[in-house]
Every structure is written in structure tokens, then in C-alpha cells.
Amino acid sequence: MKTRFETRKLTTLAILAALSVVLVFLIHFPIFPQAPYLEYDPADIPILIATFAFGPLAGIAVTVVAAVTQGLTVSSQGGIYGILMHIISTGTYVLVAGFIYRFKRSHAGAAVSLVCGVLTSAAVMVAANLIITPIYTGAPVEIVKGLLLPVIIPFNLLKSGVNGALTMMLYKSARLALDKSRLLPASAKPVAKPSQTSIAIMVSAALAFVVLALVILRIRGAI
Questions:
Q1: CB burial string 172-192: b at 16+ within 10 A, e below
Q2: pLDDT value of position 158
Q3: Can you give the three-state secondary structure of the chain, one letter per residue?
Q4: How far is residue 48's CA from residue 55's CA, in Å, rounded to a whole number?
Q5: What CA–CA distance (Å, rounded) separates 83 from 80?
Q6: Closest C-alpha among 57, 36, 153 to residue 99
Q7: Phi, psi dihedral angles at 101 (to 5 degrees)
Q8: How many beta carbons lie within 10 A of that of residue 138, not counting itself?
Q9: Structural domain total, the chain
Q10: pLDDT of amino acid 92
């Protein structure tokens, strides 16, 4: 029985990784004209679903598989640099969100874990851009610093925040489908009905990310 479950689990994770790549292929567009190479895509949604359903380590595994596959196919222009940044950004997101959710498996807990994941990922990407971007692109550090407030930070907040909000909306249906397919451990808690508090937390957080990004852009004179 355990072997059968593990096989189904690996199959499900592979499907979610493939879905992540397909979503990048179908939906991707730039947010900031001054940085057209930074594109929004919903690839993190299946990865976050895998994280909540099977744990943070499973989320990391799906992240790596999806990032490498995407980097070699639909986003091959990014090369090793794109793959590495993808793994750092999404990997941080799923580790933080996944570990918090493990200790509070509720919709409110999911909302809090996603907010923490968004903020941590955005902070880590500041350091990653300052260290890795100059090495792989040859761009001076000063230029990268100049892009942090008007572009890089708002981009990461918006992309992660939107994907987190969409995950909150879709996870219950995905979790129920996994339950019916017997792809989750018997000890997993059932999906509770979303509370008004949890919905309000995630919606408020998403709006806060948007407002913060707009304020930063306004201060920098970009809008």
C-alpha cells in the first residue's frame, strides 16, 4: 500500500511540475516596460499546491524539476541564470510557506504562510540580484541597485502575491481532487471551509503588495 501511494505521489508531483511548465508557455507577459525580461507567469501555483499537499521538500523537488525543464525549453533564453534565479525565488517561497503550513493546516494558516513566503522570497531576491545578476549578465552592481526599488522588488511582490492569492482560491478544489484519488496520506486533515478571516488576510495582503509596488513606483517617478 505504501509503495503504491509513493508511486502515485511521484506521478502527481511530475504532473504538477509539467503543468507549471505548460502554464509558463501559455501565460507570460512583462509587467514593467523598463525590464521586459521580467515576466509574470502563474508557474508557482502548481508548485505551491504540491507544497501544501505533500510538504516543503516535495515543493522544492517540483521547483527544481520545473525550473530546469522550463529553462531548457520554453524559457531557454534565460539559460543557467534563469534556472538558478527561478530555483532561488520559488524555492524560498515554497520552503517558508510549506514549513509554516505544516504546523497550521488551515486556510488562515495557508494565508499567513503565503504572506510570509512572499515577503521572504522578495527579500532573498534582492540579495540574489545584487550577487548573481552582475556575475551572469555583466551588469554593474550600481545599475542593479538602481533597479531594486522601481522594478525588482515590486515585480517579486506582485508576481508572488498574485500567485499566492490564486493558490488560495484553487487549493481547496485541488486538495479534494487529490483526496478522492487517494493521493494524500490518511492522516492528512480534511479541507475546512474557507473562513472570512483567512480570505480577508490573503486579499488584504495581495492588495497591500499592489499598493506598495505602486507607491514605490510613484516615489521613483516611474508612474
A1: eebbeebeeeebbeeeeeebe
A2: 93
A3: CHHHHHHHHHHHHHHHHHHHHHHHHHCCEECCCCCCCCEECCCHHHHHHHHHHHCHHHHHHHHHHHHHHHHHCCCHHHHHHHHHHHHHHHHHHHHHHHHHHHHCCCHHHHHHHHHHHHHHHHHHHHHHHHHHHHHHHCCCHHHHHHHHHHHHHHHHHHHHHHHHHHHHHHHHHHHHHHHHCCCCCCCCCCCCCCCHHHHHHHHHHHHHHHHHHHHHHHHCCCC
A4: 9
A5: 5
A6: 57
A7: -65, -30
A8: 7
A9: 1
A10: 95
The grid coordinates listed for 141 are 552592481
Range of the domain at 185: 2-25+40-219
Please state the pTM of the whole predicted model. Answer: 0.81
In a domain, 34, yes or no: no
Distance CA 219, CA 38 (A): 21
What is the structure's pLDDT at 185?
56
What's 102's domain CATH number? 1.10.1760.20
Terminus-to-terminus CA distance in the chain, angstroms?
58
Q: Looking up cell 509587467, which residue turns up? A: 31
For residue 115, being part of any structural domain is answered with yes
